[in-house]
């Protein structure tokens, strides 16, 4: 205690923790990123209601412009519904490659200007500006950075500046669109207090309902509650939410994103019971993911298959295996899992494959099971894929499943491209 | 039933036999030693159903009988005695009383008839081999045997007897060891797969032994007899993979290097390799061997350069360093030779010197598929 008093740092919250070092964390978020990129490409789209997302019956809204939000449209909503709400909106299918490209341009600028940054998704960044106050004035520096990005990329961006990631993120959301907000040191709690609990990251629809049923609407109420009560109601998450509501968050800015698993899934345009097609899709997925493993010098030790039936019930099954990245081991195992899993004789809405327990390494050749020809064939196929793209050679059984494949290398240290309607 | 036996003599035998007893048995009787007394011959047996080992002890007695004595209790007791005679007397109330110079100890016993009988080998074939040779054959091969329950044949050591030679092979599909003795012969051609556990026991008992071991075998069981001891075990059923077919015949690239040098280098470098895959990379160019490893998750990296004698094309090959260390450790020669053909084919490790007359060791190690 004496030591901290000596430093002039006092506990200022009502709880028994105190922050030893004040950090300065910046959160940057590109406003309606997909929409902004589309408008950049085609300026005719400016000031018109715009929807980006799947155009099929099953499609969902990945991004929507502020004009459409007035009609009650939000991302994650079925496209059909969005069109009904806002019939005059222009609907664009979207092109993830061009989004990645623009995201990379922004990343480059940020990388150049800040000491440590974390790309937490395709349009979101955290930067640690601790200590920069001494030279530049963090807020001034952040505004300059924001203006540089706007000038050089032509994309609107907002930021929040505070002592930690959570408060900065909330601040950004409050600042939007195309604006900035600084939360002064010590004012985190008062800033959060009047907001709806929905604004706290991690409070999704379910948690929101639970809390509303308890009569909690404002963050203020949570702040006044003891932590134990939250923990009793929401389990371990309750503790985290309580801390966040009080503006406490010690998570560091992590500059590198290490993939814990890789996965892919497919929702069909129309629910299907065609087992042959399902198997083809699973083979295509496995083949592609296995190639991603080999490209990234990774091995997997756990495979999982999931199925969502037309009644929206999700079933999944996983299996531990010895470390491998070979198609001929993974594909039969995935199909075996599918065979066990698919037992309902019901239409299938979605299938997915996921590899986890990843480690760096290469495939250990087996003395008896692997032939030299097969190994050379794999190497040649991977070589072709490296040069001409990951869909350039495939198994005939995987031909039916068109458009399964990813453009990005999942092991490049960047965060996975999260589909818009998924909550992280 | 009553007998007198020297405590250290008994302990020595019991400790050997105790190795076969599992720590948790489904059949409680297997937690016992079977004491079968016939005048001054005491046969002590232990079993785990798969393997039964028995030893004949000279004792002082003129009675007969068979009882099953709790193994743990007996071993723990006998272990504590300095050399002295122990008197075992079977009492009427189903206990056996041991008298030492210090006092008396009673333990409950079970009827010897409850103890499972060892199988009798029906029309076996037989071969004799020096105990020491058998022990070294086991030591040289057993480490390469696998642990995979799905492929039980690979969890044992393959014995291949012929009038020309005896061959012992072990593999886990990633590494393979073939140990051949051309100076020992069998009367006829025979093959069987021995499980690991009895081999480990034999290895322990026979190391440095001068006595002859008589091996009898048929399709399902094998029996090893030596000194006053007999070990009978069930064989692993199944067909051993055709290992000869996977040993590459043409290996144009040959590396000759000091064993201790490459072993210590691989050991050091592998500390910096990935903790799960233990992957290292060998780069050979000219007369230089470059050993490197990297753990990208922690930014650990190591690289060592060794001079070697090398004939062949420059090449790059990846290995699991664990396998290399195990194999190099198991050899005792000063120099080793590593023969290779392609980065996706097995490397063949052989000792370049220090072998006995008629002794042949071949070790195979499969590489990992490096991205070029």
Automatic annotation (TrEMBL), chain A:
UniProt remark on cofactor binding: Binds 2 magnesium ions per subunit.
GO biological process per UniProt: DNA repair; DNA-templated DNA replication; error-prone translesion synthesis; SOS response
Residues flagged as site, Substrate discrimination: 34
Cellular component aspect of the GO annotation: cytosol
Catalytic activity, EC: 2.7.7.7
GO MF assignments: damaged DNA binding; DNA-directed DNA polymerase activity; magnesium ion binding
Pfam families attached to this UniProt entry: IMS, IMS_C
Domain annotation UmuC: ranges: 25-204
Role description: Poorly processive, error-prone DNA polymerase involved in untargeted mutagenesis. Copies undamaged DNA at stalled replication forks, which arise in vivo from mismatched or misaligned primer ends. These misaligned primers can be extended by PolIV. Exhibits no 3'-5' exonuclease (proofreading) activity. May be involved in translesional synthesis, in conjunction with the beta clamp from PolIII.
UniProt family annotation: Belongs to the DNA polymerase type-Y family.
Protein's name according to its UniProt entry: DNA polymerase IV
UniProtKB/TrEMBL annotation, chain B:
GO MF terms, alphabetically ordered: 3'-5' exonuclease activity; DNA binding; DNA-directed DNA polymerase activity
GO cellular component, one term: DNA polymerase III complex
Domain of life (superkingdom): Bacteria
InterPro entries for the chain: DNA_clamp_sf, DNA_polIII_beta, DNA_polIII_beta_C, DNA_polIII_beta_cen, DNA_polIII_beta_N
Signal peptide: none
Main location as per UniProt: cytoplasm
Boundaries of every DNA polymerase III beta sliding clamp N-terminal domain copy: 1-117
GO BP terms, alphabetized: DNA strand elongation involved in DNA replication
Cytoplasm in keyword set: yes
Domain DNA polymerase III beta sliding clamp central as annotated: residue spans: 129-242
Pfam families recorded: DNA_pol3_beta, DNA_pol3_beta_2, DNA_pol3_beta_3
Keyword Coiled coil set for record: no
Localization of this protein: Cytoplasm
The DNA polymerase III beta sliding clamp C-terminal domain, residue ranges: 246-352
Keywords on record: Cytoplasm, DNA replication, DNA-binding, DNA-directed DNA polymerase, Nucleotidyltransferase, Transferase
Protein family according to the UniProt entry: Belongs to the beta sliding clamp family.
Assembly, per entry: Forms a ring-shaped head-to-tail homodimer around DNA.
Purpose of the protein: Confers DNA tethering and processivity to DNA polymerases and other proteins. Acts as a clamp, forming a ring around DNA (a reaction catalyzed by the clamp-loading complex) which diffuses in an ATP-independent manner freely and bidirectionally along dsDNA. Initially characterized for its ability to contact the catalytic subunit of DNA polymerase III (Pol III), a complex, multichain enzyme responsible for most of the replicative synthesis in bacteria; Pol III exhibits 3'-5' exonuclease proofreading activity.
Name of the protein in its database record: Beta sliding clamp
């Amino acid at each position: 205690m004496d030591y901290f008093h000596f430093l002039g740092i006092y506990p200022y919250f009502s709880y028994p923790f105190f922050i030893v070092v004040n950090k300065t964390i910046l959160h940057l978020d590109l406003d309606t990123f997909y929409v902004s990129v589309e408008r950049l490409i085609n300026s005719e789209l400016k000031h018109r209601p715009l929807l980006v997302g799947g155009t099929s019956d099953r499609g969902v809204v990945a991004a929507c412009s502020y004009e459409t939000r007035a009609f009650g449209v939000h991302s994650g909503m079925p496209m059909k519904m969005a069109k009904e709400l806002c019939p005059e909106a222009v609907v664009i299918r979207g092109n993830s490659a061009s989004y990645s490209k623009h995201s990379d341009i922004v990343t480059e600028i940020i990388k150049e200007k800040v000491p440590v940054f974390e790309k937490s998704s395709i349009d979101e960044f955290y930067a640690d500006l601790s200590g920069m106050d001494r030279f530049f004035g963090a807020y001034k520096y952040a505004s300059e950075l924001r203006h540089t990005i706007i000038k050089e990329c032509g994309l609107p961006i907002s930021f929040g500046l505070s002592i930690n990631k959570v408060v900065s993120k909330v601040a950004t959301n409050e600042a939007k669109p195309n604006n900035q907000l600084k939360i002064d040191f010590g004012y985190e709690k008062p800033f959060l207090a009047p907001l709806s609990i929905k604004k706290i990251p991690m409070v999704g629809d379910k948690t929101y309902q639970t809390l509303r049923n308890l009569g909690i609407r404002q963050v203020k109420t949570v702040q006044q509650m003891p932590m134990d009560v939250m923990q009793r109601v929401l389990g371990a998450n309750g503790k985290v939410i309580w801390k966040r509501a009080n503006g406490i968050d010690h998570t560091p800015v992590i500059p590198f994103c290490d993939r814990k698993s890789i996965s892919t899934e497919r929702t069909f345009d129309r629910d299907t019971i065609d087992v042959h097609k399902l198997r083809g899709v699973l083979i295509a997925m496995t083949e592609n993911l296995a190639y991603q493993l080999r490209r990234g010098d990774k091995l997997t030790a756990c495979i999982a298959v999931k199925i969502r039936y037309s009644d929206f019930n999700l079933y999944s099954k996983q299996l531990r295996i010895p470390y491998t990245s070979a198609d001929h081991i993974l594909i039969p195992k995935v199909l075996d899992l599918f065979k066990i899993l698919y037992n309902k004789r019901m239409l299938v809405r979605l299938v997915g494959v996921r590899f986890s327990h990843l480690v760096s390494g290469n495939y250990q050749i087996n003395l008896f099971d692997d032939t030299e020809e097969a190994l050379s064939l794999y190497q040649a196929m991977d070589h072709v894929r490296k040069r001409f793209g990951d869909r350039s050679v495939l198994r005939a059984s995987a031909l039916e499943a068109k458009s399964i494949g990813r453009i990005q290398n999942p092991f490049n240290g960047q965060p996975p491209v999260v589909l818009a309607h998924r909550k992280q | 039933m009553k007998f007198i036996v020297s405590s250290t003599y008994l302990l020595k035998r019991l400790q050997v036999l105790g190795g076969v007893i599992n720590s948790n048995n489904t059949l409680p009787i297997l937690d016992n030693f079977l004491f079968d007394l016939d005048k001054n011959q005491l046969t002590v047996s232990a079993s785990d159903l798969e393997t039964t080992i028995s030893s004949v002890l000279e004792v002082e007695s003129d009675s007969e009988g068979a009882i099953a004595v709790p193994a743990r209790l007996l071993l723990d007791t006998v272990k504590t005695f300095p050399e002295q005679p122990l008197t075992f007397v079977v009492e009427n109330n189903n206990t056996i009383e041991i008298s030492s110079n210090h006092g008396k100890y009673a333990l409950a016993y079970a009827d010897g008839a409850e103890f499972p009988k060892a199988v009798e080998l029906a029309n076996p074939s037989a071969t004799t081999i020096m105990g020491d040779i058998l022990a070294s054959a086991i030591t040289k091969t057993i480490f390469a045997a696998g642990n995979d329950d799905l492929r039980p044949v690979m969890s044992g050591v393959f014995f291949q007897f012929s009038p020309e030679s005896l061959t012992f092979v072990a593999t886990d599909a990633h590494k393979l060891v073939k140990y051949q003795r051309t100076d020992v012969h069998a009367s006829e051609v025979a093959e069987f797969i021995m499980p690991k556990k009895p081999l480990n026991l034999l290895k322990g008992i026979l190391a440095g032994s001068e006595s002859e071991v008589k091996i009898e075998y048929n399709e399902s069981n094998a029996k090893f007899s030596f000194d006053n001891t007999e070990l009978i075990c069930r064989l692993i059923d199944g067909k051993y993979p055709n290992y000869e077919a996977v040993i590459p015949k043409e290996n144009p690239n040959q590396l000759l290097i000091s064993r201790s040098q490459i072993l210590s280098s691989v050991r050091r470098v592998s500390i910096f390799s990935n903790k799960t895959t233990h992957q290292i990379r060998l780069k050979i160019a000219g007369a230089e061997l470059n050993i490197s490893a990297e753990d990208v998750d922690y930014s650990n990296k190591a690289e060592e350069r060794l001079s070697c004698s090398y004939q062949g094309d420059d090449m790059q090959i990846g290995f699991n360093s664990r396998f290399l260390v195990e194999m190099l450790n198991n050899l005792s020669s000063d120099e080793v030779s590593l023969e290779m053909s392609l980065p996706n084919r097995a490397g063949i490790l052989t000792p370049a010197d220090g072998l006995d007359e008629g002794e042949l060791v071949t070790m195979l190690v499969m590489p990992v598929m490096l991205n070029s």
